[in-house]
Amino acid sequence: MQEKSLKCVVWDLDDTLWSGTLVEGDDVQLMPGIEDIIKTLDSYGVLQSIASKNNYDDAIEKLNKFGIAEYFLFPQVSWNPKSSAIGVIRDKLNISLDTFLFIDDQPYEQNEVSAQHPDIECLSAAAYVDLLAHSRIRNIQVTDDSKQRRLRYMENALRQNDEQEFVGTPEDFLATLDMVFTISVAKPEDLIRAEELTERTNQLNSTGITYDRDELAFFMSSPDHLLLVCDLTDRYGSYGKIGLALVETKNQIDTIKLLLMSCRTAARGVGSSLLIYLMKRAKERGHGLRANFRRTQRNRQMLATYQFANFKEISRDDENNILFECDLSTIQDYARYIKLIIDV
Amino acid sequence: MGHKKFDREALRQFIVKNMNVFDDEVVLLDDTNLFTSGFVNSIFAMRLLNYLETEYELEIPDEFISLTHFSSIYAMHELINNLQQVELT
Q1: Which residues, numbered 6 to 65 in chain B, qualify as contacts with chain A under a Cβ-Cβ cut-off of 8 Å?
Q2: Which residues are within 8 A (CB) of A316 and not within 5 positions of it... i.e. 6 or more apart?
Q3: Nearest Cβ partner for B49 among A267, A304, A332
Q4: Does the pLDDT at position A300 exceed 80?
Q5: Which range in A76-85, A151-160, B32-41 is most confidently predicted, on average pLDDT?
Q6: Which pLDDT tens digit goes with each residue over A135-166?
Q7: Which residues lie across from A255 on neighbouring strands?
Q8: Residue of A299, A307, A330, A334 to mutate, interface with B, max B Cβ within 10 Å
């Protein structure tokens, strides 16, 4: 099996990102060539952060002086254990720990992180020179979407900040976002991103089955299949292509082979909107509606999306592959705070 | 050790506070169906699920995740009671 591509690199500062120890008053200098590596990783869509034991303000000021502060999301600079710093970063980014890489010159820190988070890969500081040749970085598929990834996280941090300060119901807040959700038939230029979505999406994913672009190209042109992609924008910016549905039609029955939504959109209600669209579509055509589902450790939210939309289990095989069916007698309305554009 | 007793009033407050439909004029009774109103969608159902799991420190098994079990205060009370019973036995 292919190695899981890295999504996040967490850097130590002293004697890792720069030479010298900041609190000891050293005139610290960036490691040779490291700025290019950081920028290249950024252009690949690899997120980067910091776990450093230092004074926060001093460290950030130094990063600003070097002109690279903007490349690090949610930098954790404190005297807390680095394992908890990484825990915070993980929670903020909402990506799984087995896609993290931690770089630190101290074996003690690497061991402390490994002990708490065994899924994280740790590297010693000197290894940074070969970082771009790392197998889990070389296997990254760079898409238009990946180049925007850091920006999207920054927009999202703004959203979350405003959401925390918002007074009113969660629905009132969603209504302030001016969300526009577009469902369209996949085009050839969508296929790389579609492949990436099947690989990267875990939580809001109905089966976890990945498809490569050749398979997706087949479904795109197959008369028995419908391949949909979705994108979402709001007043803070674009979330990009964030959702996908693959539907097979046979004998007047539509079967949703795969339904997924990027975790960027969690709690926005767009997963339900896509599902409601597929329900209405089947009903209009007088088709039945079924869905394949495979329960994984992480896709409980997708299970709930189906079951709260009245999908019921009609069979289950030895490998826990579930077949859902929905009688389409009651279909919920689309969320009122989302403007829907259907381009099929 | 006993389980936390179900608090219908706390749940009622949570629903009123988190939902636009139930303003001051509408009385939310124990058996008012939250979903036939058409105003409550599955996101809100997710929120109710999270609320109940946090409040009563349990995990609602997959097979109980359906609108019927979350359709009213009464239905949720039943659900939690049943799950707490199972935990005891």
Answers
A1: 17-20, 38, 41-47, 49, 62, 65
A2: A322, A323
A3: A304
A4: yes
A5: A76-85
A6: 999 998 888 788 889 998 899 889 888 988 99
A7: A248, A290
A8: A307
